[in-house]
Design goal:
Elements lengths: L9 H18 L3 H42 L6 H26 L1 H27 L1 H12 L1 H5 L4 H17 L4 H15 L7 H20 L6 H11 L3 E6 L6 H14 L4 E5 L7 H12 L2 E3 L7 H15 L3 E5 L8 H14 L3 E7 L4 H14 L3 E5 L8 H10 L3 E5 L7 E3 L2 H8 L1
Parallel strand pairs: 1-4, 1-5, 2-3, 2-4, 5-6, 6-7
Antiparallel strand pairs: 7-8
Helix pairs in contact: 2-7, 2-9, 3-4, 7-8, 8-9, 9-17, 11-12, 13-14, 15-16
């Protein structure tokens, strides 16, 4: 009896394969780690390629120019070559009198002997000449064959074109103009006039110059939230953190992530639903608060946001909670009425730190928004969201330098724990 084979549709097979891959993904304990750091690598991938390309271009250009110089320098005979040519001529001349002796008689024999003695004296003189100044010959050899070792100095002409290309590439990656100019000028200042001993030094000097330039860009004094929370706990007053930003940046989700961060550090936060302007905002933040098990202080839609923030602070004091996270309505930096409302919250609550939440995908727009919020209420720190989807990375490199405020965290995923502390040294190592 033959069994009939059941036909399998291609669509069913692909669907089953997709389900299996997704199941494997979520069951794998390493998945979370890979998802987070894969996103961060995407964030800096474009900038990393541009910087590494610049290092290679400068090294290649200086090496090629030196090879042209070496090709133009005439090759000189070495002392060994001179010594080899002289004995050959002498031996030929000495052989001639010996043949004449056999054929010609005593007179020719005697003349051959005297001529041979004179020629031997000449040989001795020529052999002594190379030994008089051996050091000079070695120096000449080095200057001809290895002039790059001792004489090459990087000039502005060597790197101008390449640094201009880098500046254009940085601007294309949403790096702010003043940041791009700062990097280019710093690298040029460090490289021009450098004396190169080995060809590998060119790449090393360029890499170090780029590291120094980026470190200066990111060298904004940071704020340690854990230390601030610990100090607040000792004082008995809660740490009040106010979040500001435009609509659609992921501010509400970021507040839930920061709450989770503090819970994992052993603190007890409370969330103030002070966004009473946007429809569904209270329900959204309430959903997140319920998921992570955090108390939410809320009023009705359209209520005074400053009153909500004040009640959250009083609740934290009464219940001994260390952290108050204040959500505010997302608003464009040009909306004067909403910006004034935000200033009122600031006057009533007097937050210890105001954090601007920006979307890294918006590039220079995020920088411009941060400047406006900084002018309005005074931003103390920055959180960049959606970093796992940003391949350019210009906002991360520019925003802190432009407003002179530190990046505190990067959002790198969708779960509540997908947030990482930002370290400038780490970013420099990632880029160079």
């Amino acid at each position: 009896m033959r069994l009939k084979k059941k036909a399998v549709k291609i669509e069913d097979f692909n669907a089953a394969k997709t389900k299996f891959c997704m199941l494997s993904f979520f069951l794998n304990p390493k998945t979370k780690f890979l998802r987070v750091f894969k996103g961060v690598n995407v964030l800096f991938e474009s900038l990393k390629k541009k910087f590494s390309g610049t290092v290679g271009k400068i090294s290649d250009k200086i090496s090629k120019e030196d090879e042209k110089v070496e090709d133009k320098t005439p090759l000189e005979e070495t002392p060994q070559e001179k010594e080899e040519t002289i004995p050959k001529k002498v031996s030929e001349e000495i052989e001639e009198p010996s043949k004449k002796d056999e054929e010609g008689g005593v007179r020719e024999k005697l003349s051959g002997i005297f001529s041979r003695d004179k020629k031997e004296d000449k040989v001795q003189e020529t052999e002594e000449k190379p030994e008089e100044h051996p050091a000079e010959d070695i120096e000449e050899e080095k200057s001809g064959m290895f002039s790059f070792v001792t004489k090459k100095t990087i000039s502005e002409k060597d790197i101008d074109d390449i640094l201009f290309e880098l500046e254009m590439a940085l601007l294309e990656s949403d790096v702010a103009l003043e940041v791009a100019e700062k990097i280019i000028n710093s690298v040029k200042e460090d490289l021009v006039g450098k004396k190169i001993k080995r060809r590998s030094d060119v790449a090393e000097f360029t890499r170090n110059a780029l590291k120094k330039a980026i470190s200066e860009i990111l060298g904004v004094e940071t704020r340690d939230l854990k230390e601030m929370a610990q100090n607040a706990k000792k004082s008995g007053e809660p740490l009040k953190i106010m979040f500001v930003g435009v609509n659609g940046t992921g501010k509400t989700t970021t507040i839930a992530k920061i709450a989770t961060y503090f819970i994992n550090e052993g603190f007890t936060p409370v969330i103030a639903a002070a966004d009473t302007f946007r429809a569904g905002a209270i329900e959204q933040i309430g959903h997140h608060a319920e998921n992570i098990g955090v108390k939410l202080i809320k009023h009705k839609k359209g209520a005074d946001p400053a009153a909500v923030a004040y009640d959250a602070v009083e609740h934290a004091k009464a219940k001994g909670k260390e952290i108050v996270l204040i959500d505010t309505a997302g608003r464009m930096q040009t909306n004067i009425n909403l910006m004034d409302e935000m200033k009122k919250i600031q006057r009533v609550v007097k937050p210890d730190i105001i954090i601007y939440v920006g979307d890294s995908l918006t590039g220079n727009d995020a920088v411009e928004q941060a400047m406006k919020f900084n002018e309005a209420v005074g931003v103390d720190g920055i959180i960049l969201t959606k970093a796992d989807a940003d391949a350019k990375g210009g906002a991360a490199l520019s925003i802190g330098y432009v407003i002179s405020k530190p990046i505190l965290f990067l959002g790198v995923g969708q779960s509540y724990e997908d947030i990482m502390e930002f370290k400038s040294e780490w970013m420099v190592d990632q880029l160079i």
